Amino acid sequence: MNFSLKTGSRVAIFLILAILSILGLRIDWSQSISADVFDLLGSQQSNNREVQKIQSLLQNQLSREVIFVIATTEKTPSPAVKSEFIQRIIECPSFESVSCLNTPPAAKELIAFLYQHRHFILFPKWLERTRQSLNSSVNTELQSVCDIATRNLDQFLLTPESMAYEDHLTEDPLLLIPDLLNQLGKNVTDSSGSSLLFSAKLVSPPSTPGTQVILEQDLLELRSWLSMYYPAHELIDTGFHRYASESKDLIKGEIFRLNLISLFVTLAIAITLLRKPILLLPLIFVLVLSIAGALVTSILYFGKIHVIALVIGSILTGVAVDYCFHLLLKREELKQESFWETLCMIRVPLITSCFSTVFGFLVLLTNPVAAIQQLGLFVSVGLLFSLLFSVLIALAFDRPGPWKLSRNLNYSFPLRRSKSLTFGLLFIPLCGIIIFCFFSSQRDDIQDLQVPLVDAPANEVRIRSHFQKKGTQSYWISMGDSFLELIDHQQKLTQQISEEGVGGILNLALILPGSNEITRFLEFRNTYGNDFIASFAQSLERNGFDPLAFDAFQSDFQTFLDAPYTMEDWEDLGNQIFPFFNHQLSFLLSRDNAGYWGASRVQGVEKAISWSTDHTFELAPLRALNHAFASYRGNVTRSLWYSLGVIMMGLVLVFKPRKAGAILLLPAFAVLTSLGLLTLFKDSFSLFNLIGLLLGTCITLDYSVFISQKESAIYPISIRASAFTTLASFAVLSSSKIPAVSDLGITVFVITFVGLFFAEYLNQENA
Amino acid sequence: MKFMLSWILFFFVVCSLTAETHQSSRIIQTLKEANLPASMKVPFREVRHYQLKKTDTLFTGVMRILPGRGISIEYQEPSERIFVLSPTGLIIRTEGKLDKQAPEEAISMVKVFLDLLTLNEEALSGNFLLSEKIEETHWMLTLFPKNNELKRFFQVIDLEGVDSVLQSIYIKNGRSRWKKITFTAAPVEWIPTDSAISHYF
């Protein structure tokens, strides 16, 4: 029997290893682990429209932009470096386009298009602005408009730079294009004279596998070229790739550090507690296989998991050994002859404690936050593998006879029970929950899931010092189902900002007409029609111009007036003009399945003001993502309650309700007390404190189950071994630089410590 | 022998055809011999004529030349502007506003002015056909652009002067547009301070 059990266990171990190996080989490991912040949250469809738009912008546009600065110690950069650098960038495989920010955006085709259709596109806006500056009655409106236009032309010719537009004056005496450039030029980014600024677009986002490597190579070559041919110049770059690269490196380092230290500490404690160091082998075996099994299963299920799940999953190093400890040490405690006999005696508490935790964490799969789903599956599968391998290894290498394995575990708890102390201890959880309810606060910050960065933000500050910006600036996204609706929303924002007088704004609504302006223009055309040309000619004559020189304009404008344009023609302008807005200009106008959207750049606003509407919101990625993150708190809290409900139901089913209630007292005391303690030392609670509560509850529940099932008055030493390793590994986690991980670590540490304390004391009570 | 001679002759003909002809100008040589200070300033008056306007537009200002920096044209009336012409292009400076960089297409035009005012004979003869007319002390140097890019900006440029003094530059654009820059006084040496350099360049 024993022989067949032993053989069967070994065969089972072999089979499982073989299956895991085959499955592991099928995985493309280079693409299975993500460090992309976008993979932390739920799918875009689960978020509101604002967060969806921001996620899309971040992933598709902002993450692909790289800003370069060529700074020099000389007064001005070398004249040739700009064109040569642009040529070099174009030759790099990482980049698809580049433009220099020192000069106005490369929009020659757009300006040419606007010039060709200047009356149709620009005249309604020009007319609206001109009429707003009038102070005349309706009867003299036409004449006043023409006089203003003529005066503007005269004033324009008095500026030296008017010579740049001399060729076009007879076709555009209304100065529609110079007016447009003037509006845009008010908000053009300028730079200090000693640096050149470039914006380059990557072919694919830095998170795409392989992109980062090629990009690093290209950046290295660009720097080498610059230092070789222009030694007085320095190349600085910034962009999402810098943040992604530093974040990835730091998280990798964190995973390695946490897992290594946690493993080392766990094994060190095991050596201290066990008489036979050889027993470390099965412990290591169980640990490694549990983690491997959890990793393979999670990746096969999700396709890709975020590296943060691996970081947090390092908690397995502390809890996966528990079942192994219970099996090994229970044999000594119960004085059994074999592991099989031990297993028969402790199967109920073993299975109950394992499955209660497993089901508790499986409920997290229902949570919309991707990182939390992955964590739930990773931990639950890891624990299942841990139990399975603990049992199989114990049976596979079982040897008959009594075992004396433990040392340093049969100590006496220093605290002696007394009625007053017992009564007093009952108040502690009560105080804990009161402190928590009144003094705790919530914190929802997506950056909790990232290692705090240093180099990338410092580099960003250095880059920004080369931009001469007037005060702060912010971007506001407006959306519309139609093109005109987008322009109308932007006009409302522009009007609001103008009324509040807080800053300058750059958006399409500055140059393109909205539906109101088009309506008023159509009324103007119907009212004055051909009189405009004649009136304008008279005004030119009065102001010293030769009307005959403007034949080209008159002919073109007449054609424009005679054309049967309707509102739909201006709506169709969106289709015609959209292709010109690429690269740098794509922020001004873009479209997706939902319609059109465009950004407004607001400059000079020092304090936060909200102009948000249903169709307009600020492009504040961190704030929007944090709002999304905060919205998940309700989901996570519900998930936790469901988990606890599942656990309680399981306990009631396995034990009688009265006994189940008694079992639940220990974790309840531990959690409530810990909440109070944590509130005293922490200023706020994050989602990962909540998850730590769940895990801590499950761990202390395990202790409670084993205590309730013990056959003698002797305190189960396996609980001590389990608790010490758990405390050690979570102490390591609480030292993590990643706030989410340290929150989880400190929460579980405190609950486990308090749980152990109460378990030891309660055991005294039962003595 | 005949074969060798014919090859030698062919070689010289080809060389003479392919070699760039550097058209030298006595006027430019005379101007160079004027011994003007390297760094100088000179007041000017600019008249612009447009067919579309019945009256001409008059600008006045001061031009400054600083070797290594370029040329600064300070317009004083009717509008105050500073145009900074350098090999990197044209910057337009307005008091209280950010500098504007002219598009790269303007560089070729800027270069012509730089060559003109710094008397870069080689560059001028490379881009223009030079025609001289000298009558005793009075002279006129006419430049006809050779390539289409320059013809967009200039139809013809006339430099007029007496002895070794450049008095005016007349630029004719197409469609009855022209400009005439007249130097209203002799250039004087200009020794700028650092703040003046920052202001004008």
Q: What's the layout of helices and strands?
A:
The complex is a heterodimer of chains A (767) and B (201).
Chain A: H1 2-26, H2 29-32, E1 33-34, H3 49-60, E2 65-72, H4 79-91, E3 95-100, H5 108-116, H6 118-132, H7 141-157, H8 176-185, E4 190-191, E5 195-202, H9 211-229, E6 233-239, H10 240-273, H11 280-302, E7 305-306, H12 307-313, H13 316-319, H14 322-334, H15 339-362, H16 370-396, H17 419-439, H18 455-464, E8 467-468, E9 473-480, H19 483-500, E10 504-506, H20 515-528, H21 531-542, H22 551-562, H23 567-577, E11 590-592, E12 595-603, E13 616-618, H24 621-654, H25 657-681, H26 687-709, H27 717-733, H28 739-766
Parallel strand pairs in A: 1-7
Antiparallel strand pairs in A: 2-5, 2-6, 3-5, 4-8, 9-12, 9-13, 10-12, 11-12
Chain B: H1 2-18, H2 26-32, E1 40-49, E2 57-66, E3 70-77, E4 81-86, E5 89-93, E6 100-101, H3 107-117, H4 121-127, E7 128-135, E8 138-145, H5 148-151, E9 156-162, E10 165-173, E11 177-183, E12 188-189, H6 194-200
Antiparallel strand pairs in B: 1-2, 1-11, 1-12, 2-3, 3-4, 4-5, 5-6, 7-8, 8-9, 9-10, 10-11
Q: In a nutshell, what does this entry contain?
A:
The complex is a heterodimer of chains A (767) and B (201). Chain A has 767 residues and is α+β, with helices and mostly antiparallel strands. Chain A is 63% helix and 8% strand.
Note down, in words, how this protein is organized.
The complex is a heterodimer of chains A (767) and B (201). With 767 residues, chain A is α+β, with helices and mostly antiparallel strands. Chain A contains 28 helices and 13 strands. In chain A, strand 11 (590-592) and strand 12 (595-603) form a beta hairpin. Chain B has helices at residues 2-18, 26-32, 107-117, 121-127, 148-151, 194-200, and strands at 40-49, 57-66, 70-77, 81-86, 89-93, 100-101, 128-135, 138-145, 156-162, 165-173, 177-183, 188-189. Chain B has 201 residues and is an alpha+beta fold. The longest helix of chain B has 17 residues, at 2-18. The termini of chain B are far apart. In chain B, strands 1, 2, 3, 4, 5, 6, 7, 8, 9, 10, 11 and 12 form a twelve-stranded antiparallel beta sheet that branches. Mean pLDDT of chain B is 82; it is low at 1-21. Helix content of chain B is 26%, strand content 41%. Chains A and B meet through loops of A and strand 6 of B.
